[in-house]
Amino acid sequence: MNDKTAVILLNMGGPDSLDTIEPFLFNLFQDPDIFKIPLGQKIFAKIISKRRTPKVIEQYKHIGGRSPINVHTEKQRKLLEESLRVSNINADVLIAMRYWKPLTAETVNFTKQNNYDKIILLPLYPHFSSVTTGSSLNEWRRHYKNDKSKIIEINNFHDHPKYINAINKRIDEALEEFPENQRDKVELLF
C-alpha cells in the first residue's frame, strides 16, 4: 500500500502587495517565539505594525511592491513535487507560511481534509533557530491536533553534503561572473 504523503515547505512568507504589509507585520510582531510578551502581545503587535507600515511600504516599493519569497517558495514547491514524481514518489508538496498566506493554519486544515498518512515538515531554513525553524514548527504544532505519529520533522540540513554541494556550486557560478584576476578579492556574505 502506498502512503498518502504530504511534504510541507515551511517558510516565513511575505506581503504579496503593499496592502498586505500591515497584516503581515502584525502576524510577525505577535509571534510568541520572537517576542515574548506575557500580556498585551496583540496590542504590541498592532501598535508596532501600524507604526512600521509606512516605512516598510517605501522599502517594498523598491522591489516591486511585494516580497519575492512567496514566488520563490512556490517555484521550490513545484520543482520538488516534480522531482519526487520523477523518482516515483507520490507526494503532494504544500506550502505553510508563518506570517502570510498560505498561513500554517490553512495548510493544517488542508492536510486534515485530505487525510494524509504521512506529513513531512520541511522548514526552508538550513540551520535551526528558535525564531525561524522553531517558530514555524511551533505554529504547526499549535494548529495540528491530529495523530502526531504521522508527522516527520526535519529540523535542519545545513550540514547535509548535497546542500553544501549546491551552495558551493552557486558560489562557483557567481564567481565566474568576475574576471579571474579579481576572484580572490570577492567578499562572500551569507
TrEMBL record:
The keyword Lyase applies. The keyword Lyase applies. Its EC number is 4.99.1.1. This is Ferrochelatase, protoheme ferro-lyase. One of its GO terms (biological process) is heme biosynthetic process. It comes from hydrothermal vent metagenome. SUPFAM superfamilies: Chelatase. GO terms for molecular function: ferrochelatase activity. Keywords: Lyase.
